[in-house]
From TrEMBL:
Top-level taxonomic group: Bacteria
Residues forming coiled coils: none
Organism placement in taxonomy: Bacteria, Pseudomonadati, Bacteroidota, Sphingobacteriia, Sphingobacteriales
Protein name, entry field: NADP-dependent 3-hydroxy acid dehydrogenase YdfG
Similarity-based family: Belongs to the short-chain dehydrogenases/reductases (SDR) family.
Source organism of this protein record: Pedobacter nutrimenti
Length: 254
């Protein structure tokens, strides 16, 4: 059993939850961050019971710089030796042409997907520098590799994640910190429900007639990157459902 620590943002559902489960299975101690306190608490209790690992929960909104910073800095010193940071918290809001987009939605996406990721990374990369090791996994998207109709601002945030991933790798190289981006295509999670603000019918339609990725598929890819030998870094992985060729082109059953 390892005594390593993984910090996962957006751990209450989808890819983050799958990562929390997989890293707990691997014996990691976990720091889990998300906004839904009850969901986070239940997950922590379940993982502690099932895998006999220690889980520290931090109920925070990654957009709230001060509360986030205070919460992270208040962690006990032994919890600051983070080996793996998974910058996963993120979302899309709306799917409209640029002239009709909701500017509040734009703020939420930019503040969460870009600024929230930066706030967490600044703090945790300093901890990693102090311990001269670590691995940062940034969750990008196919939307960070191409732009699809009405994806405008969400695609821009994920292109920013792609650029930040490259920048972090350069800046943290002298400190022996690995940096990897995992870019998924369509994964069936709460993502579409959030994008369409609770419209279950519309969210369900996104995955109809073809087999999307599962959150577990992405957790497996992250584990592959994390478990490479010390001299190997996976810079970037683009992972698509076999039935999805681009952001919008899918092969579906009639
Ligand atoms: P989910 O909606 O299932 O999970 C998103 C997670 O992020 C939740 O745990 C949510 O928790 C958390 N979160 C959202 N906003 C905040 C915030 N402001 N502060 C803290 N936590 C937050 O979606 P996915 O698992 O699919 O998404 C995970 C990542 O994967 C995102 O970055 C997304 O952009 C990316 N992605 C998803 C794809 C997909 O098709 N599903 C494809 C490509 C990339 P809570 O609400 O409790 O705060
Ligand atoms: C989420 C997947 O295809 O909606 O990043 O952009 S997609």
């Amino acid at each position: 059993m390892t005594s390593k620590i993984a910090l996962i943002t957006g751990a209450t559902s989808g890819i983050g939850e799958a990562c929390a489960t997989l890293f707990a299975q691997q014996g990691y101690r976990l720091i889990l961050v998300a906004r839904r306190a009850e969901v986070l608490k239940k997950l922590a209790v379940d993982l502690e019971d099932k895998y006999a690992v220690k889980v520290f929960t931090l109920v925070r909104d990654v957009r709230e710089k001060q509360a986030l910073t205070e919460g992270l800095e208040a962690l006990p010193e032994e919890w600051k030796k983070v080996d793996v940071l998974i910058n996963n918290a993120g979302l899309s809001q709306g799917l409209d042409p640029i002239d009709k987009g909701n500017t509040d939605d734009w703020d939420v996406m930019i503040d969460t997907n870009v600024k929230g990721l930066l706030y967490v990374s600044k703090i945790v990369s300093n901890w990693m520098i102090a311990s001269k090791s670590g691995h940062i996994i940034n969750i990008g998207s196919i939307a960070g590799k191409e732009v699809y109709p009405n994806g405008n601002v969400y695609c821009a945030t994920k292109h920013a994640v792609d650029a930040l991933n490259k920048g972090m790798r350069i800046d943290l190289l002298p400190h022996g910190i690995k940096v990897t981006a995992i870019h998924p295509g369509m994964v069936e999670t709460e993502f579409s429900l959030v994008r369409f603000k609770g419209d279950e019918q519309r969210a369900k339609k996104v995955y109809e007639g073809f087999e999307p990725l599962l959150a577990q598929d992405i957790a497996d890819a992250i584990w592959f990157a994390v478990s490479r030998p010390a001299h190997v870094n996976i810079n970037d992985m683009l992972i698509m459902p076999a039935a999805q060729a681009t952001g919008t082109i899918t092969r579906r059953k009639e």
